Amino acid sequence: MDNGWQQKPGNRIYRPRRIRKYRLRRVLGVAAVFSAGYGNVGSSIYYALGIVAVTASGATPVALGIAGILFVFTALTYAEGTAMYPEAGGSASFALHGFNRAIGFVAGWALMLSYIATISISAFTIPPYFGFFWEPLKSSPVISTAVAIGIILFLMLMNLIGVRETSVINIGAAILDIATQVTLIVIGFILLFNPPVLIGRIVDNWPSPDKLVLGIALASIAYTGIETASQMAEETRIPERRVPRALILMIFAVLAIFAGISLVSFMAMTPQELGSEWARDPVAGIAANIPVKILSDILKPLIGILAGTILLIATNAGLIGISRLAFSLGQRKLAPKMFSKIHRRFQTPYIAILLFSAIGIIILVPGFFTPSVFENVGALYAFGSLLAFMFSHASIISLRIRKPEQPRPFRLPLNINIGKVSLPITAILGFVFTTVIWIIINVTQPFSRLVGFVWMILGILIYYIFSRRVSPPS
Amino acid sequence: MSEAKNRTVFRRILVPVSGTEADDETMRMACWIAKRDKSKLYAMYVITIKRSLPLEAEIESETRRAEELLDRMERIAEAEDYTVETDLLQAREVAPTIIDEAVERKVDLIIMGVKYQRRFGQFSLGNIVPYILKNATCQVMLYSQYTG
Prior knowledge:
Chain A is an all-alpha fold. Chain A has 18 helices and 2 strands.
């Protein structure tokens, strides 16, 4: 018999209670985990570049580079954590093991905010990319915001009904994403390469130190999405080896492509143009400024469609991510049971989908009245993601102290030994930098500070009230 | 005599069930074939979990329905004086799971019950059966239940 059958990625099998010992059939490989992770992280550049340019101006590539170092630390932390606990939940899971249920919940709640912001910002960035086909999608805040809200409503409905979607879509999106970005970098370097112009645009538009620091803080959103790769751990074959490999591969790919895109964008347009006219669709700005007319005419609609599609998938990934996370928290008795309530007919977590889509929409409502919503939602995204990363770093450090004997299939390099405890320098630096950036975001961004803290306080209240009513699972 | 010697022997048979009226008769047929070759007989049911839920999500109504169905398959096998090993799985997609299970259990034959169904006014085998027919690495037998 020919046993050349290859299981489809993402189709892990779970055996419920019928047989006494159930086994998990993990099927994903390095490529599939990398694709899922890159699909999420890679989509960030379509809006992050503009957000950073609004603040960091000429220092945008530098801000992205510095934030990239933080990304390396965070990805390494996730590699150690996921290899230790190959289960869905990411930072919430690490915090649960590294600390306790309460901190596990808080980390999960922060992660939820990050997912909601992903939904809002990805949806909000889609209409401008289609502006090539109908100008008001880019120029009119009312039409643009209404379409973004419509996109969330559409995806909410799709996820409520539970339309079949294969994992092939994620892999296809990642391939499309990388192909688009690499093509643009290659074309950009061939047609636009001009070091004096590039250096001139950086030096002449260098921001003030406070703006540079804020730019670095906002640049961190370009690298969020590592969670997605971590979430795939429970569906990965030999996760303790393959997830770290996929994360390391992602570090190289993301840093190389993001550096290329940011440099090409500076060769294609001035920081002022990038931070104003093309703020919401910076990659479309690169295509529009390609000097060869025929190439630009082809690339403009193509980039619009590709970027729009990738962002649509990223919005959907956010919605799927938050409904899964909310369900898991509900199932683990870390959050109210309503989060894990399943619709009788559609068999989807309808309350979680409805509730979090509604919050994603509410966040976008100011977009009808003010253009600053883009930067605000970006900062809110940074608030949630950085908080989740802080918990991840802290949990990995805590696990080194509290569970030093626990097997670590992937152990972070560069450690300092204090007595019998070995602490990873990258996780410590990651924790310190993430905390500093998170504080900067809170000090400088009133919208994200207000919404973020209200969200976290609400979560803590829910947990406090809920934990008094429900006894934790044995 | 040589004809009988050359016939295919099925050592392991897999019966994926889906809760249609064809399941019972398919299981009986599988028992007859299994008796002839003294085969190991497996029945399986796949609960499809939507992507908005973690794969471990326990959907009580579905699990109960699947348990009842697999219990019924065990009773049918018992009535045919044979034993069947039943299994309940949760996956994102049914068809690849059946193929994966068949490969893992080194199955020689998959027997599936097919319900007569129409889609857009045309007879349709649905998505699962064609996928199995295309990708199976063993023999596949279909039992089509005529419902009048």
